[in-house]
């Protein structure tokens, strides 16, 4: 899609013309099961099917052969909390007051008044579970159990954080490494010693992070087995490969890419276990499985971070390497096997697309930024991205926009940058001075959208 004045006109009409999201039911007798596997800080290049020379990912490579690989798929943020808020609500996180990372001392979170994918699927009585990293507020009112999920098992935020002494300890809590109830309540929290929760109570502290990927997989499979006779939604946001890195004994020291590679190869094993379980339970052909990362990789020495090659940039940045992520989707018989999509799509598109596929209704009383991308996923001939423009925020600052092949980025550190991504995926050739008319038009898109977003903000959840 090439940029022209029609894009600006159509975009402005969408902002101020009161468009309504389509939510047509997908013509199907039995609503599909949904599995979303979300990885923490994985780089664009960190899968075999995305070109990794050292990390072995046979299960994900096979998933791509049986489904669709997206080349231009974006997270909504280059950091954890806003990327997760956006995925679950179909909305840029800045609208909801979650522009940055939440920490254990924060008393805010995703507002329970927001409608998550899990909330939406309750319209069709889906069984719902979140297994893994939440990071949208650790206070009980913000946890998955208050956001549409029947059940939660996991770490409530990043694994380099610490416990909130006010957390409720379960009666059967396992205290490790010399920890006692008194130490939890009265001693200063230890960095990287994080709690493992079951629903709203701590069941292990500090969590044994070497076994997290394995245990997440086991709990996810238990959920699938328990709900195979009804429609289900499994949200599986893995803790790895966020630092500090951990892998189980079965995978530690096995990858040619060091401990980072070990964590990815264990996640690949986990994906294989999930896919095998779906086949064993005979629900495979009615289950949409989506795999993506929450943002790009850390820029770290010693092989501790991932690779976004050939993209420029890392986590925390609105460069492609910070927000363009690997994404694979698989649904036998519905998503064409061995296919590839190079149209712009994003995590914010999952909620409206799932609404269509499940015959549920996306919220109509608020702005939803995501679009229905089923035409892309189904391989519809001639399908194009529904996004005339896609926006890149850093905290509350709108730094970049992509429209068609063009991307404009305006920052204090790098100035005004214009790239043609179809010819320059690495954002190496700044064309801002050569194409002032495109810069002007894209700046107008950014200004109009940022003004609209800020006039339609919703309150963050607070205590």
What is the element layout, followed by pairings?
Blueprint: H1 5-16, E1 33-39, H2 58-65, E2 68-70, E3 73-74, H3 80-89, E4 108-109, H4 117-121, E5 127-131, E6 151-154, E7 169-175, H5 181-186, E8 196-198, E9 201-205, H6 212-226, E10 232-237, H7 258-280, E11 287-293, H8 320-323, E12 327-330, E13 339-341, E14 345-346, H9 350-358, H10 374-377, E15 390-394, E16 397-403, E17 406-411, E18 415-420, H11 436-455, E19 461-462
Parallel strand pairs: 1-10, 1-11, 2-13, 3-14, 5-6, 5-10, 7-9
Antiparallel strand pairs: 2-12, 4-19, 6-8, 8-9, 11-12, 15-16, 16-17, 17-18
- Name the overall outline: globular
Described by strand count, sense and barrel closure, the largest sheet is: 11 strands, mixed
Question: Which structural category do the helix and sheet elements fall into?
Answer: alpha/beta
Q: How much helix is in the residues?
A: 25-40%
CATH architecture assignment name of the largest domain: 3-Layer(aba) Sandwich
When the domains are counted, the total is: 2
**CATH class label of the largest domain:** Alpha Beta
Task: Enter the CATH topology name of the largest domain.
Answer: Alkaline Phosphatase, subunit A
Number of strands: 19
Counting copies of identical and different chains, the oligomeric state is single chain
What is the percentage of strand-forming residues?
15-25%
String of helices and strands: HEHEEHEHEEEHEEHEHEHEEEHHEEEEHE
Low-pLDDT stretches are 16-25
The strand line-up of the biggest sheet is: 7-9-8-6-5-10-1-11-12-2-13
Radius of gyration: 21 Å
Q: Can you say what the CATH homologous superfamily of the largest domain is?
A: Alkaline Phosphatase, subunit A
Q: How much is the average pLDDT?
A: 94
Number of helical stretches of at least 4 residues = 11
- How far apart, in Å, are the first and last alpha carbons? 45 Å
